[in-house]
Specification:
With about 350 residues, this protein is an all-alpha fold. The protein has 15 helices and two strands. It is about 70% helix and about 0% strand.
């Protein structure tokens, strides 16, 4: 019974962490229409930064090699992860968002993720290469001195607090005028620009905000697992995060949270209980992604807006997207543009 409770707690922690990451992607894609296929890179930046800041120096005589080793407390490590994700995304977005759009932006962010993966794996002096960081300290573990199972409940509470703060921030953004303008940029950046708004600057703010959230999620992931290496942010991780958002419902904060439960927890962990027709571990991994892909196709076919669609706002007659894709096209040809 204790084992079941421990497993359920670990799944709840995983759902919270993915909820933070998917919410960050929702700010980028669901709110602003930014195709970020490099979300796993910002998760890795947050995880590595947290590890480098909270770990002590490499033990003498060991084969480990990494920079910093500041042995800082949890809150400093979490703040450093958020700053690292924000600065990196600002540098990338300041160039990419001005130069490329749509599919080319997706290729740029995907290439950036691959660059981060190659550097992390090959530059041993930086983050210990392909072996990665190990022994990353858990938050407040030495201070509280809790038992293993009790500490997991504490860590779950900590993740819930961070998740609540992130989702509250996303909801405030969505309900504020800034959120309405972002949705305008998502649908037609030229019209937003015609009102004197800098669409590139707006998209950059959304891109940085979402990347900071993803980096915070990466820091919590590294803190919980206690280790992180390049195998933790392969292309499959980006696929899982995107699938979670598309299934849950882009543009809806609750939809992002639902997707974080359905995909990384229900579908990914649920495949572990399928009958094993072979002992080949690669087959089990492929079956997991196959199951997620089938569910994604079914959702896109029968409910393309996601399980929890973007909600209409009280000041609008209909969802922004439906107005633009449907009858609102007539407004482009001569009518008044929608309120931004």
């Amino acid at each position: 019974m204790a084992g079941v409770a421990f497993y359920a707690t670990s799944l709840a922690i995983l759902a919270c962490i993915y909820g933070i990451i998917v919410t960050g992607l929702n700010v980028q894609w669901g709110f602003a229409g930014i195709l970020n296929f490099g979300v796993a890179a910002f998760v890795a930046i947050g995880a590595y930064t947290y590890g480098l800041v909270t770990l002590g120096p490499p033990p003498a005589g060991s084969n480990e090699s990494y920079i910093l080793g500041l042995q800082a407390p949890f809150l400093i490590g979490l703040l450093a992860a958020a700053v690292a994700g924000g600065v990196t995304s600002w540098l990338l977005g300041a160039v990419a968002l001005r130069r490329v759009r749509s599919d080319y932006l997706a290729i740029t962010t995907l290439a950036f993720s691959q660059i981060v993966w190659v550097i992390a794996g090959n530059e041993t002096w930086l983050v210990n290469g392909w072996d990665g960081l190990a022994g990353i300290p858990r938050p407040f573990n030495e201070v509280l001195e809790l038992s293993y199972g009790t500490y997991d409940l504490f860590f779950l509470a900590l993740c819930l607090v961070v998740l609540a703060a992130v989702t509250a921030m996303a909801e405030v953004m969505l309900r504020a005028p800034f959120g309405r303008i972002l949705r305008g940029v998502r649908e037609d950046a030229l019209i937003v620009a015609s009102f004197g708004r800098n669409a590139t600057s707006l998209r950059l703010r959304a891109f940085v905000t979402g990347s900071v959230m993803a980096s915070i999620g990466g820091a919590l992931l590294a803190a919980y697992v206690g280790a992180f290496n390049p195998s933790a942010f392969l292309a499959g991780e980006t696929f899982v995060v995107w699938t979670a958002l598309l299934i849950g419902g882009p543009g809806n904060t609750l939809g992002a949270l639902l997707g974080a439960i359905v995909v990384p927890v229900v579908l990914t962990e649920g495949t572990r209980f399928l009958p094993h027709v072979t002992t080949n571990s690669q087959f089990i991994e492929a079956l997991r992604y196959f199951t997620i892909g089938v569910v994604l196709i079914l959702v896109l076919r029968f409910r393309p807006q996601g399980l929890l669609p973007e909600r209409p706002r009280t000041h609008e007659r209909a969802p922004w997207s439906s107005r633009w894709r449907g009858g609102a096209r007539n407004e482009r040809s001569g009518g008044n543009p929608p309120h931004a």
